[in-house]
Design goal:
Pfam families: ARM_PUB. The protein is an all-alpha fold. It has six helices and no strands.
Length: about 80
């Protein structure tokens, strides 16, 4: 049950990240990238998909978010998905 709520929440975030206003609000939140990283590491396949979509939108549009993602070692996590 909790997994489905997290999955749905991350799905909504991925939709909000597609618009400028949504991204701007997410960019203001301290530790937001870290929350998405936890979903990548512990979430369901669908939750992971939405977390990656959200990160893609944020990182594409904001250099600061790219640096946060780099510090959280997102690239290594994604490479790990390729190995699985």
């Amino acid at each position: 049950m909790a997994d489905s709520r997290v999955e749905r929440a991350v799905e909504v975030l991925s939709l909000l990240a597609k618009c400028r206003e949504g991204r701007e609000e997410m960019e203001r939140l301290d530790g937001f990238v870290g929350v998405l990283v936890r979903v990548l590491l512990n979430g369901s396949p669908r939750g992971v998909q939405h977390a990656l979509s959200t990160l893609n939108s944020l990182c594409y549009c904001n250099e600061g978010m790219r640096w946060q993602a780099k510090r959280e070692e997102i690239e290594e996590i994604c490479l790990g998905f390729l190995e699985d």
